[in-house]
Hints:
With 375 residues, this protein is an alpha/beta fold. The protein folds into 2 domains: 9-249, Type I PLP-dependent aspartate aminotransferase-like (Major domain) (Aspartate Aminotransferase, domain 2), CATH 3.40.640.10; 252-374, Aspartate Aminotransferase, domain 1 (Alpha-Beta Complex), CATH 3.90.1150. The chain has 13 helices and 14 strands. α2 (17-30) runs antiparallel to α9, α3 (37-50) packs parallel to α9 and α10 (252-270) runs parallel beside α13 (361-374). It is globular and about 65 Å long. Bound molecules: pyridoxal-5'-phosphate. Pyridoxal-5'-phosphate (PLP) is lined by residues 60-62, 86-87, 89, 132, 158, 160-161, 187, 189, 199, 201.
Amino acid sequence: MKKINMVDLSGQYNSIKSEVDNAIKDVINTTSFINGPSVASFQNNLERYLNIKNVIPCANGTDALQIALMSLDLDPQDEVITVDFTFASTVEVISILNLTPVLVDVDNETFNINIASLESAITRKTRAIIPVHLFGQAANMEEIMLIAERYNLHVIEDTAQALGANYTFSSGEKQKLGTIGTIGTTSFFPSKNLGAYGDGGAIFTNSDVLANKIRGIVNHGMYKRYHHDIVGMNSRLDSIQAAILNVKLKFLDQYNNSRKIAASKYSKILDKVDKIKLPKVMGELDSHVFHQYTIIINSNERDELAKYFLSNGIPYGIYYPIPLHKQKAYNCDRFKEEQFKNTNNLCKTVISLPMHTELEDDQINFICDKIINFF
Ligand SMILES: Cc1ncc(COP(=O)(O)O)c(C=O)c1O
């Protein structure tokens, strides 16, 4: 059996090596390092893939969230609702922009925003909701959009972990995640489902007005060279990264499918272990692209299991060990412990198993055998 990795970037690279190497060489040969043709072509290809009018590439997924918020003309202290159980980027950018982060609990079943908590957190100052499609599973976009409409709120979908997943509305209509809200964002961090070989990100919107604003913001607020019409940033997708992403985008559905197959193999074997709660796919199968395969250990033995993994050469991840409301940077009197029952519990009980496009059957069987042995 090959050594087990949490993610296997080199195995994936080897399978597309010559195409990636040629794409990188092309950029170097043309020296179009900033905003070169590869960026425009990746933008067009991603627009087509997502079936959205505007994709604006940028430097990383955190900038994508910040730029999305900047484009909405919010006032200082306006409230933005997001989840307590996710990577820190969302709450970070809300705070950087001098807006007020309002953290809410997630569902135990999906790890995604709890609809009742979301609705009860809305006040007269609420302007936007940032749902995160955590671990690759679609948040309940139908309910979120209904609430947003009712209270006249913007929705920024954080699709960093779920690019390529679909949401199916009760009407039967399907839409790619990231294209349903006012704005969608993603990250091309190397370990993401569509990962670059460095940092990268993108912003999606069907609104031409917002897209025009966002295109200015990512490039120092300039529409004409050295004319700065709005306050902007330097947040461009590097041409070399765009060239690599252009190659990899063709394989995104195949990559997501490999993850789903690995997930179903894990679930089939682990289903018989009583003390484990397996990740559920809510709704249609294509609503989950398994960025992570995260299980819940119901027996207070999560940390013991983690130690056992280490001693058996099995890598793992704890996403996330501390709820955002308890982080020093974001802790404040507005947050009451009883509001975060699920996130407090999940941070103590979740563990993510190795998940990538190159997982082999003997590796999955080995990991599952060890888990069964442990319990
Ligand atoms: C849910 C989520 N949002 C945002 C980000 C930020 O992306 P980046 O690392 O590209 O800034 C990440 C990446 O780790 C993420 O997982």
